[in-house]
Amino acid sequence: xxxxxxxxxxxxxxxxxxxxxxxxxxxxxxxxxxxxxxxxxxxxxxxxxxxxxxxxxxxxxxxxxxxxxxxxxxxxxxxxxxxxxxxxxxxxxxxxxxxxxxxxxxxxxxxxxxxxxxxxxxxxxxxxxxxxxxxxxxxxxxxxxxxxxxxxxxxxxxxxxxxxxxxxxxxxxxxxxxxxxxxxxxxxxxxxxxxxxxxxxxxxxxxxxxxxxxxxxxxxxxxxxxxxxxxxxxxxxxxxxxxxxxxxxxxxxxxxxxxxxxxxxxxxxxxxxxxxxxxxxxxxxxxxxxxxxxxxxxxxxxxxxxxx
Length: 308
Hints:
About 15% of the residues lie in helices and about 40% in strands. The chain has 5 helices and 17 strands. The protein has helices spanning about 10-15, 20-30, 35-45, 50-60, 305; strands at about 1-5, 35, 65-70, 75-80, 85-90, 100-105, 110-120, 145-160, 165-180, 190-195, 200-205, 230-240, 240-245, 245-250, 265-270, 280-285, 295-305. The longest helix is centred in the N-terminal third of the chain and has 13 residues, at about 20-30.
């Protein structure tokens, strides 16, 4: 998921979409997942040379990816859609001018309770042994940039350094997530619950544990039959409710927590025992997956006397 917050930020995307041919390319890829450039050119009734310029524009904007695949007469390029969603948010909400931004490294959780299959890894190597939950206590876990488990939770303490006499009016959290299947399985649903200070604010169902292509940032030493990338999800809780990628998932509002400059904020991601789909959770950090980021957090605030 790509979150665009200004027209200038989305300019390359808008240019790439400013063509009926390129729109048709994306529609074909959405229907067929992976397709060769030869077949694309045939369906569009254009030459391979003409198709190449369109593919380059779509790829440079991040809308699609290409990979080489061996065929009977050499290598051919396979195209697939890269972005699952584009969220364009141009409205500047009144009272949200003051923002505190921070990032949480994947391994910097403050509490956990998880069940195998499970594991952690830094950008360079596995941390301990896979499927042994004891290694979630290992000192090297602070260097973890990917972690996964079948059920349970990891909880993070969100730093709260907003100025004194301010009240929190919105929390935005961005993270790359997927399910956790034994091996990989792109169709492996998992109900992932999000909590703030032990209150569930909503649930998102991850569609699968993705391994069809290598993650853009996933290191070369990583095993090809393991989690490669996730989906970038944008979780927002404000005075209107809780949203993921702009869609409302619960009526829980930020006001119900009464958070201000003195408040501790604990954020938990969980696969609960009683979930309809217990399909695990993988959290990707900046050295894995497709987005090159840790867990990003933005806290909007306003003077207490203005929001009471």
